[in-house]
Structure formats: structure tokens, C-alpha cells
Amino acid sequence: MKPVIALIGRPNVGKSTLFNQITKSRDALVADFAGLTRDRKYGDAVYQNKSFIVVDTGGIGESEQGIDSYMAEQSKTAIHEADLIIFVVDARAGLLASDEQIARELRTLGKKVFLVANKVDGVHAEAAVVEFYKLGLGEPMHVAASHGRGVAQMLEEVLADVPEDENPEEHDKATGLRLAIIGRPNVGKSTLVNRLLGEERVVAYDEPGTTRDSVYIPFERDGRQYTLIDTAGVRRKGKVDEMIEKFSVVKTLQAMKDAHVVVVVLDAREGVVEQDLHLIGYALEAGRAMVIAINKWDNMSEYDRKQCKLDVDRRFDFIPWARIHLISALHGTGVGDLYPSIHRAYDSSHLKVSPAKLTQILNDATEAHQPPMVGGRRIKMRYAHMGGQNPPT
User: Fold this and answer.
1) How confident is the model at residue 117 (pLDDT cuts 50, 70, 90)?
2) CA distance 274 to 37
3) Per DSSP, which regions of 241-379 are E strands?
4) Smallest Cα–Cα separation from 202: which of 189, 179, 218, 216?
5) Which of 233, 125, 245 is nearest to 181 (CA)?
6) E strand or H helix at 255, and its extent?
7) Cα–Cα distances in Å, from 104 out to 10, 33, 42, 64, 91?
8) Rounded to whole angstroms, how far apart are CA atoms 319 and 310?
9) How many CB atoms lie within 10 A of CB 138?
10) Residue bearing the bigger pLDDT, 96 or 204
11) What InterPro entries does this protein map onto (predicted)?
12) Which pLDDT band, with edges at 50, 70 and 90, does 169 fall under?
């Protein structure tokens, strides 16, 4: 699992600017689930072959009542889910009482905290950061996030103990097809997980992936190896009743980034809601192969089923390639049919197309639609080749 780094600090100390600097090599994923993660940003980043997720937790208020009293619930969740914490302070504004309060709270977490003094441009950096030593968090690192100065050196130190990414081919061989089950709370994810595993009864072991309670479960079906990534935690066999789940954007992003195929679970009785579309958007941003499972299909009237199908066809017209299944995880109806679609999605995402075939497709396309003229001359495209897989590029 990729480590999670949370950016913590008062408002207007430059956390969002630093977030954008860190994630500039990759498109940042922005979470905007109303009431859950409003104004909280989750970005995927890579530095020197080390992948990680960055969380911009938003500004902590000026009150001195403690973090719990003035930090939004998702910000607190992000801090506790984080592996590493970057505490950002403002070198121009100097040390404030709220900085000291935040530092006291962070020291109680028992996590590695890196103190970063931002906005050192335009001031004498060494003199400006002296007072921050009082926070008891070690030597402050100097950055000017708006110009990108010092960011690389900061990442060097923060990521010093983070291992480089594994060789993808070796990782795939060890884990088989990695399958993530995602969905908003109470759509039946855990019931589906238990159904998938309980049918086969070949779970080798349950290995907690991280402190975020994501569980990696290797299993085998028809001679093929799989690793199921469950963000909600696997319940013991038989305990398939859905519990009230606390949605975690971090766990969902972690699972998707580490998966080959994502199964997005929806509730047929509620239809397609905005959170479902946001989750699918996450999967698209991550470039993951996808299968849609419309759960709780049982006990619906014929009219409600028809309305659900119409809603799904209308709302999912932007992903015509994703196969949609109508299932009942509780009773097992349609669950076995997911596997052929999972294999198809995996094979499509790992498709290898020869340069010769791609070049032929390119030639056919340019014959049908001539490239534009530049400087009075027609652009000539000579050949095409693949840039990568999962997704094919």
C-alpha cells in the first residue's frame, strides 16, 4: 500500500500551494463528496520512483480549544489515517499560539511529524524559523511553495524511509489479479466480499494491509490466483449483515491504485446517486479497469427494476465499455457472473498492440481525416507505439 502523507496547519500557511507542487507530476484527484470530504483534496504523487498519496486537510482554525473542537471530521480522519504528517507553518507570520496548540496535539499521535516553514522567500530564512524550534518537532525545513523552492529537498527527507515502488511484473506474479471492491457506505460491499470468498472457501490468510484496515486476501478460483482488496474489512463468514460504514476516501484511493480491476457496487433500491458517479470518476482518473455491480436487486418490483435499468443506462452512458451486472450479494444471485467480466476488463487493460497494427490504425485515421496544415505544410505522422498498460496508452 502506498503511504499517506497529510498536510496539517493553520489557514493560509500555503498547504494547498505545497499540495499542488507535490502532485504536479500527476493529476490530483479531488474529492468533493458533499458533507463527507468537502474542500478536502487527495492527490496521487510520485517522487524518485516512490509513490504516495497526499492529503490536504484544509486549515485548522485559530481557536485554542484543541484540534477536536475545530477540525472537520474528515480532516481528523485524514490525520489519523496518515502514515506521515507534514506540519506547515508560516515563516512570515511567525510562531502563533495556534501553531503551538496544533504541535501539542500532533505530538500525542505518536506519528512521524515533519516541520516545514513555508514562505521563506523575501525573508531571512534562518532568522525567521528560529522561534519554531520551540515547537519541539526538530529542525524546520525551509520551503517557498509558491516558487517550488526547497520542495525537492523536503520530499527527500520526508520519503527517506519509504521504499521504492516494486517491479510491477514481480508484484503481479506474487499477488495474481488484484480486485478492489469499492462503493459508498451500506451498498453491500462486505456482503459481496464474503460471498466471493465464502463460495470458494479457499482463503489462505487474512493479512491486514495497513492501519487503515484495508485487508488483502489471496484466494484461488478455478486455478487462477486473485488478491481481493477490501476497504471495509472482511467480516467473519456468516456475518454478512451490513454495518454502518464510515466512508474513507483514503482507503478507496489506496485500494484503487493498487488494484488491476475495480468493482463498483451500487444499491439498486436507491438508484444512481452523485457519490456513485464520483467514485467512478476516481476509477477513471486512476486509469483502472472497471465492472459495475448493481446490488440488492432482489425483492424489487418489476416496475422498480425497469426504472433502475433506465436510470443506469442514462447515467452511465459515459462508460459504455464497463459491463454492468444485476446481483444480490446476500443470496448470491448473479455474483458468479462477475468473474468473466472481471477477466475481460483485466485483459483489456493489459492489451498489447504491436506498433505495426497501431501504425496501420493511425494511417487509416489520417487518410479519413487529414492532419492540419502548419506553415503551409501538412503534418505527416509516421508511426505509433504503446506507451504503457493498465491503462493502455
Assistant:
1) very high
2) 13
3) 261-267, 289-295, 323-326, 373-374, 377-378
4) 218
5) 233
6) helix 249-258
7) 14, 30, 25, 11, 19
8) 15
9) 11
10) 96
11) G_ENGA, GTP-bd, GTPase_Der, KH_dom-like, KH_dom-like_a/b, P-loop_NTPase, Small_GTP-bd
12) low
Cα four-point dihedral sign 145, 147, 150, 152: positive
Under 8 Å between Cβ of 256 and 279: no
State which amino acid sits at residue 166.
E
Nearest Cα residue to 264 out of 77, 275, 343, 254: 275
Helix axes 15-22, 151-158, angle to 10 degrees: 80
Tell me if 313 sits within 8 A of 307, measured CB to CB: no
Structural domains for the chain: 4-158 (3.40.50.300), 168-349 (3.40.50.300), 353-393 (no CATH)
Instruction: Give the residue carrying C-alpha cell 459481496.
Output: 192
CA angle 244, 246, 248 (to 5 degrees): 150
d(CA 27, CA 42): 10
Burial 57-94 (b: 16+ CB within 10 A, else e): bbbbeeeeeebeebbbebbebbbebbbbbbbbbbbeee
- Residue range 184-194: mean pLDDT, rounded: 83
Q: Look up residue 248 and give its three cell numbers.
A: 474513507
